[in-house]
Amino acid sequence: MKRIVFLLGFAILTLGLQARVVKFSVDMAGQEISPNGVHVTGDFQELAGFPGGDWSPNSTPLAREGQTTIYSTLVSIPAFRYYEYRFVNGDQFYETEFVPVESRIGYDFNDNRWIYVDSLANDTLDVGAILFGGNAPAGKFLLRFNLNAQLLANVHPAGIRVAGSFNSWNTAQTRLVSFDGQHWEGIVYLPAGNYAYRYVNGNTSSGLEIVPAACSAEGNREIALSDHFVLESVCFGACVDCDAVGIGQNDAPVWFSVKQDKGLLDIRFGIERSFRIAVFDVGGRLLYSSQGNGIHCLIPLSHHKGPVLISISSGRYFATTKLIVQ
Fold first, then answer.
1. Architecture of 141-243 per CATH?
2. Is the pLDDT of residue 248 over 70?
3. Which range is least confidently modeled, 134-138, 282-286, 306-310?
């Protein structure tokens, strides 16, 4: 009996050491509050110790914050995983909110919200007081990132992240989630404005993608945010989705060729033209860059073997292509 009690206590202690405090909050502005109160439900409830198990609509009540329209609660749940949830105006599951398409997980008709608990930091992870049935907290807009990691040979064990002017270029802060094993997505809530960003394979600056010149602003991706916005899927280090990588944009004809011989890549244009070229490995590390004028460019890559991504731009044409260096 003592052994059982000890093991139970040890399990609880271990869970506590691996858990982080998360604040779920919702803004009920414009809603008639149910006499049965406001709740949150999701797949975190059992781990957080609420009765009734996961997706119980009445076991996790939210308390009103003073005289505001915001209702919230704090829960302690294990880190390094994502959770699904939604808010309830009442205590029955049919009283859950209608989650807008932009905020839904979306895969396999899943219409829940989600959050990723990415660390064991001592501070409280605040989801943000999202408007009930809305996309974002009042005064802010949803921005949903969407990266296709199909051509990454290895996704870093720390996962995929996004860094930008919205999070002070912190490469470890904003982790994305993959629901299908290929696309990595994440949501942030921001005021209207212009934001620069880049995707990160891992959680350090060494994993920052190299954005091709044809779709970059001073080396970064950029978005002018004035409404809720879901970014189109793009391939890591490319201007287009992975299915289109290697295809010239703007309906360009075939305007270059790539040959290799003993560690040398020979990119030929057919006619003399100005060009910018960047070659990087599938982890996003820059291997070579060059710009100039001519009919071809020789790239020494004898120090590297394996897949590379080559970004080429010339005037209004650009392309990104993948090659295996022998």
1. Sandwich (2.60)
2. no
3. 282-286
- Give the CATH superfamily of 16-131: Immunoglobulins (2.60.40.10)
The CATH 2.60.40.10 domain(s) of the chain lie at: 16-131, 141-243
What does the pLDDT look like over 113-147, one tens digit per residue? 999 999 888 889 998 999 999 999 999 999 999 99
| Mean pLDDT, residues 34-59 taken together | 97
Asked whether residue 173 carries a pLDDT value surpassing 50, the answer given is: yes
**Full-model pTM:** 0.73
Bridge partners (DSSP) of residue 175 are 161
Topology classification of domain 245-325: Immunoglobulin-like (2.60.40)
Q: Which residue intervals of the chain bear CATH 2.60.40.3080?
A: 245-325
